[in-house]
Automatic annotation (TrEMBL):
Polar residues compositional bias, start-end: 392-401
Name under which the protein is recorded: Uncharacterized protein
Species the sequence originates in: Sorangium cellulosum
Keyword tRNA processing in record: no
Residue runs in coiled coils: none
Amino acid sequence: MTDNHRTRPTQGANARLQKLAQDGEVRRLNGEYTKAIECFTQALAIHGGYAWAYAHRGAARAAIDDWDQSCEDFGKALDLRHDYGWAYAHWADAHRSHAIYRLGTADTLAEWREQHALIDSALAYFDEAARLSPGSAWTFAHQGAAYTYKYWLEVMPRLLPMLALDDGRAPSPAGAGAAPRGLPGPRPASAVPAARRVDAAALGLESFETACRLNPRYAWAFAFKACLLALIARELPEDEMLRKLDEARACLLNGLMLDVNRRLLVDAPVAKLMSCAGNFPLSVATGISGIEKNPGDLVSRYFIAVGLKHMNDPHANTVIEQTRKILISARRDIDLMLDGLAVLDGTKSLDSVTNLHERMTVESIALLAFDPTWRELRASRLPQADPREANPATTESQENS
């Protein structure tokens, strides 16, 4: 251990340390994660044994899915302070978030199975966090969210057999770091057991109920509990399903009433929930509320179109066509931004970016005009398509003549 770890900071250095810690936490809570990481790193340069700074830098890194570095920070925090419930809870939630990020880019069934290893590790860390911090509503609410995701992993193979998903478990993913004090860590494939078999739905509801008992105004916990209730409903017979969906709706509405700052983004989930229940008028009304708050809410737009068609609205086909155009436009914008990111990190050269003429939307043209990523491209002239290729009939006529 270095002197920096052993030596407590002087009075002057301690004042600077506290200032950096406070600034870092304010930036982390405001979503300025890279600035927060800088502040915590400077704090650790002053006092390398500061478990709090390691844990909160780990949380900031988890927020941008800097997975390996995040795990390293949480591991150091827990090595320095073995009873640190906050670090256990946020490392657990980092596993849940990382699993969701990983699934978003998964291409193989093995990557699907990896989800179970991540979420089971998350639940083990949440168990320890709950033991150390039994009064933390945040811990129990996010433990409920982890159980919800585990239940989702179990439900989807049954609901979507055509995808050939399973509930097997792969080895714990690389980068999880050494397991602190007896908790599960990376193991060889031969030592990995089957996925943790628990009643994830029941345990998730229990966690949410504990969170709401500890903090009766916890809007996020009510909203996430509604998601779990909707998942449970999806596998029930129709009559029971409708009753459970109604319970989920009431839970969501409770969360909305408690959300005085209107920070919960629940319009799209409610629209989806009501569509599943066959309440298409309410699904459409909720979707309209969603796009009033956020015109870029594509899921709400989709369920407006779905609901209108099921209601036999005479203008449904017009709305479907409009929604299709919006989704195609969004896909073109996303494709261009993905190319921009690939150019920035060097995985793609500007010369290899093609088909720009086929992706022209208001947003994509603005991106090309103002984003410095495309500066060199703006100075060149894109090759124009051969007009004969656009009209094969004309080409054939000219050749025959």
